[in-house]
Amino acid sequence: MNTIRKFLLACTAAAFATGASAAASDYQPIAGASPVPATEGVGLRSKEDLEAFLDGILNAQMKEHHIAGITVSVVKDGALFFSKGYGYADVDKQTPVDPATTLFRPGSTSKLFTWTAVMQQVEQGKIDLDADVNQYVTQFKVPSTFDHPITVRNLMTHTPGLEDGALGYLMARKPEDLVPLDKALGLHIPTRVKPAITDFNDGTTASYSNWGAALAGLIVSNVSGMPFDDYIDKNILQPLGMKSSTFREPLPAELAPHMSVGYSFERGVFKGHDFELVHSFGPAGCMSATANDMANFMIAHLQNGEFNGQRILKEETAKLMHARQFSPSPHVAGSGLGFYEEYVNGRRLIGHGGDLLFFHTNMVLLPEANVGIFVSYNTAGSLPIDNRGDLIKQFMNRYFPAKLPQVKSPDDFLQHVAKYAGTYRANRHSYTKVEKMFAMFGDMKVVPLADENRLFVSGLGAGGAQFVEVAPGTFRAVDDDTTMSFVDGPDGRTHVVGPFAFIAATKLEWFETGAFHYFIIGLAILCSIIALVSALRNWKRDREGDPSALRARRIAGLLGLLQILFLVGLIVPIASLRDMNEIVYGLPWLFHTALWLPLICIPLTAAVLWFALKAWRNRFWTGYGRTQFTVIALSSAAFLWSLNFWNLLGFRFG
Amino acid sequence: MRSVKGFVFVAATTLSLMTGSAAADGFNTDVAPHQWIPGASPEPQKGAGHPLTKEDLETFLDGVMADQLKWQHLAGMTISVVKDGKLLLAKGYGYADVEAQKPVVAEDTLFRPGSTSKLFTWTALMQQVEQGKVDLDADVNKYIKFQIPEKFGGPITVRNLLTHTEGLEDSGFGIVVKKPEKLEPLNKFLAEHMPNRVRPALTDFNGGTQASYSNWGAALAGLIVENVSGVPFDEYIERNIYAPLGMDSSTFREPLPANLAPRMSNGYVFANGAFKKKDFELFHNIAPAGCMSSTSTDMAKFMIAHLQNGEYNGQRILKEETAKLMHKRSLGLNPMISGSALGFYETYVNGYRMISHGGDTGYFHSDMQLLVDENVGIFMSYNTLPSAHIPMRSSVLHAFMDRYFPAKLPQVKAPDDFKSRVARYAGTYSFNRHNYTRIEKVINLFGAVKVVPTDKNTLIVSFGGVEPSTQWVEVKPDVFRELDGDQMIAFAGDENGQAQYIENPLGVPFIGAYRLKWYQNPTLHQLILGFGALCFLIAIGSALRHWRADGQATDGTRMARRTAALNGLLNLAFVAILVVAVSSMEDDGFEWTGTIKLALTLALIAIPFTLGTLYFAARVWRVEPWTRWRRFQYYVIAIMGALVLWSLNFWNLIGYKFT
């Protein structure tokens, strides 16, 4: 905890120094490493060509990855160029997906509507991008943890420095569990764990925040004086003629029959799931829409605010929103306001993906060609998440190809990449609540490969990827244009920024790594078993010896038992979940109950430590026995420290 | 083996009751036609598909391959599609050489078709049948210099080879070598690596229960061609198939001839985030079973020749009637599932019949599918070991069929009374393609096929820890269809009301599965070996702890713990050395190393100690020098030691069972 506080102080100092918001620097491609866009044979061809091509990709994806249904729309030059449904909206009833009528859940792609609404209010002068968000929030106050406040611009670039949180409140199982937006936000204010940035060339603290996006929706509602859903209906959906779209939950009666079922593929069959409820944090991602409706929204943005004679944004507002406003490094993708950038085949894309449990969505605009793609999958899984990115890549390769230069790291590579080697963790996780424990898994390891002069990065896709240094501190994947930079942050640590601007990763100290805590927990399990077995085995014999030694062994045995029971109570309910993601609905009762155990362990651990000292002083047992007991005592203490590190000591819920 | 004998008996009885179509020499080669199942089989929607044009196909495949290559991390692939006697499309995707950024070019880049090469061997064999030099129903021993031993009262016939029904165990030893100098002449290699006959060769091709894929058998067919024609196999294929078809970029030779070598695609694995290049694979030891190298455009010529019943470009490689005989359904384990032709196996997709052959080397994965009634053929080959358990070839085939030859798939409902029949099917099976009599059998320790009923009256068939991709619905007695697809499996045999075989568990008639007895169940052996290892550790720990005390014992238990510990140590060392030896082998085949022999020797040395531990167990029982708990612990250790010995012997790990 101390370290965090120290680094927080350092950050505040940095904020003072820089003063007011700095403009984001332009994106700079790297000569000889960034893809060189083709100049001939560029652009969409016929509708037939696009259809046959997408048929190929999406049929292969559905078959190989067990996806029930997909909806897709492509716009070009202000009109719907192509849209098509694949597979089923309802597998049991064999209802096919229809891009014009079947509703999918865009998930976080809905945020683009919220951000557009914010910009409408900015345009009307009711919101200042650089004002303290507290200026627009009457229902509660975002704490002033740091000197500089969180601004609206921070929300739009996911740089408010908020911790992530979701457990038990982001999604609801039943409609009656939904909470009004202002109430939900006020009840679950995340802790500010890093200062909100003022220099938008610093991406090291970026951490995607659903709460922040939902807060933006509340601000729109507050300054416009309208409930958020009504506001979106009146100011975006209606002007764009998006008749089959809504933020409302449960779905209005006229739309409900057209909603696609969300699926998971389990034991060889598709399993349908109930409509997912996200309305408590609606502006962050609770929309339902058809692909054809989403096409209208894409056209409006590609035409800088205008659709079919209607305007949802002034041209300059739209341009401001789309321009690069946040630059974690000049060589990696940054973001506009709400839209994030991707650079594929040397061309700039802006868009937003979205994931619910069972829907995976992507919306990508290629402004330079006036082309946009929307795609949504109705089946859970990591593969559909990869698929939606792959689809864009394949689309670009066919219609906007580029030559990817072959790259080689400089010869002195190994000398200066040593400082990047280590273990990193994505910033987006909880810091102060029990859900921090999920951050223990999935650390990203950066390992220099001496033979190839490459950096191996694990935890990025299946099996990891290899990177070549193409500019000092900037690395490109060996065989594609994925690019990331290592940047020293104001906190004195090294960070990875890019390819996704809204989540940076932070280098960990050795004692913060998942691997170290696996070791502590593994050792604790082993020592617990030994302590327990030793107490039982010597049950009779101990009665004849020193009563202190008897107490020592039995208390250690009891502590071992409690530690094992706690881990069982922790792991069993989580492991028995069908899908890890379902944890978002909250932890099972057994888990809550199990949290009492470590509290009981505290005095026992203290006692065992004291007995360990006493064992040496009073010469209990043999030297081997004393050593064993000491190891058990130290291991239990380390275990408590680890539990506290992951917020498992006490009941720290968000 | 008793059940196998029973099966022969039943088969013979059935034969004698047959209509008389059975040949006089006891074979039934009259195979019933494939039967569709109304209400369950797909109904082709003729005319509803996209027109199969070059442009549409190319764009569609561009999409399919863009997806596959990217997410499955496949370096490159080549594909050719023929239609109406012409090449419709041939295209390469990705790289033949990733480092050098050399793209795959369909006309130029050579791939390894693997077992798809067998179709050339089978074609050559049929040429010799046509010339009267080979009789399909003759004993293969008639055509070879060494002899396959007499067993099960009947010979292996040429037809058995063509349908993989010769009843041979599988064996991979020695097939792949590292250096060309290690390659041996076909006759020598086959004679020295003869697998054992583990089932009677099939005589009833219309009602048998088991086919089991054999590379050795296919290679033997090549040897027969060589023997009866008097021409070395490689040369025979060049003269009698490549030359007439104009396949100038194909060869069975290894290493590759100098003119072809530079055009060969690398093989790849994707590991640690990058493609790793692999050496040209050498398996000419069983050349006719799969060592060809070829381009997809050359393979297109071969496809056209078969689709046109032997003729290509005015040249004939087979007479029309021979080709038709070769393509005809010649093995039907169940009339409602795919069987095989001669060499080709059948694939049914969307209600269309295809004759086919896939092929896998360590890195190359190929497939050839001929839609004989539509005069359309597809060949594809990938050059990378896929990183996921995804059937990429079948997904291309199904995507192709759905687009150009679509069908309506009737929805099937699992019968409500299926529960009453579930016991017949549920249980643990094993693929029959494995080794039975040698150390290689141990691979099957991880190869159980599990048939599990669901509460929805369907079955899940799973193997190797792979997530099941479908559930199976009973559509006819013993016949099951995929819940959402058109693939079929069947069960066969009966013992105490339980089916004994699964036909087509992998969608191919050449590999079946058989029900395991309880003592064959890999899970039992995993438990014995796992718990045994724990006991061995305890035995060692216990001996060390009591070393001094034991040394002073005078009641005859002095050596008890030490014997058990030594037994444990030997066994653990055996396993450790074996695991290290096997895992340090490259993934391209087995080789007999001194390390493995050392390991096996340790297992042999352990036997007297296993027995010694049992002896002491009996002794401590009588002498009773120990507490009850100590004795109990020792008995468990002794019994587990004996069980481990039994289990090791079951997997052919006791003794040097190499050949």
- What is the C-alpha radius of gyration of chain A, as a whole number of Å? 27 Å
**Proportion of strand residues of chain B:** 15-25%
Residue stretches of chain B low in confidence (pLDDT < 50, at least 5 long) are: 1-24
How many distinct folded domains of chain B?
A: 3
Helix share bin of chain B: 25-40%
In CATH terms, what is the architecture of the largest domain in chain B? Answer: 3-Layer(aba) Sandwich
Q: Separation of termini of chain B? A: 20 Å
Give the DSSP E fraction of chain A (strand runs of 2 or more residues).
Answer: 15-25%
Number of strands of chain A: 21
Question: What is the SS-derived class of chain A?
Answer: alpha+beta
**SS element count, helices of chain B:** 16
The average pLDDT score of chain A comes to: 92
Mean pLDDT reading of chain B:
91
Q: Roughly what percent helix of chain A?
A: 25-40%
Structural class of chain B: alpha+beta
Distance N terminus to C terminus of chain A?
18 Å
Overview of this protein structure:
The complex is a heterodimer of chains A (654) and B (659). Chain A is α+β, with helices and mostly antiparallel strands and 654 residues long. In chain A, a hairpin with a 6-residue loop joins strand 16 and strand 17 (465-471). An 8-stranded antiparallel barrel of chain A has the order 14-15-16-17-18-19-20-21. A 7-stranded antiparallel sheet of chain A has the order 4-3-2-12-11-10-9, with helices on both faces. In chain A, strands 1-13 form a two-stranded antiparallel sheet. The radius of gyration of chain A is 27 Å and the shape is globular. Chain A is 37% helix and 17% strand. Chain A contains 17 helices and 21 strands. Chain B is of the alpha+beta class. Chain B has 3 domains: 2-408, DD-peptidase/beta-lactamase superfamily (Beta-lactamase, 3-Layer(aba) Sandwich); 418-516, Lipocalin; 523-650, no CATH class. Helix content of chain B is 35%, strand content 16%. Chain B has 16 helices and 22 strands. Chain B has helices at 2-17, 54-72, 118-130, 158-163, 186-192, 215-229, 233-245, 296-307, 320-327, 392-404, 422-425, 522-545, 547-551, 560-583, 594-623, 628-650; strands at residues 43-44, 76-83, 86-97, 102-103, 267-271, 274-278, 311-312, 315-316, 345-349, 352-360, 365-371, 376-382, 384-385, 407-408, 427-431, 448-453, 459-463, 472-476, 479-482, 488-492, 501-503, 513-515. In chain B, the strands form 5 sheets. Chain B has an 8-stranded antiparallel sheet. In chain B, strand 20 and strand 21 form a beta hairpin. The radius of gyration of chain B is 27 Å and the shape is globular. Mean pLDDT of chain B is 91; it is low at 1-24. Chains A and B meet through helix 2, helix 10 and strand 16 of A and helix 2 and helix 10 of B.
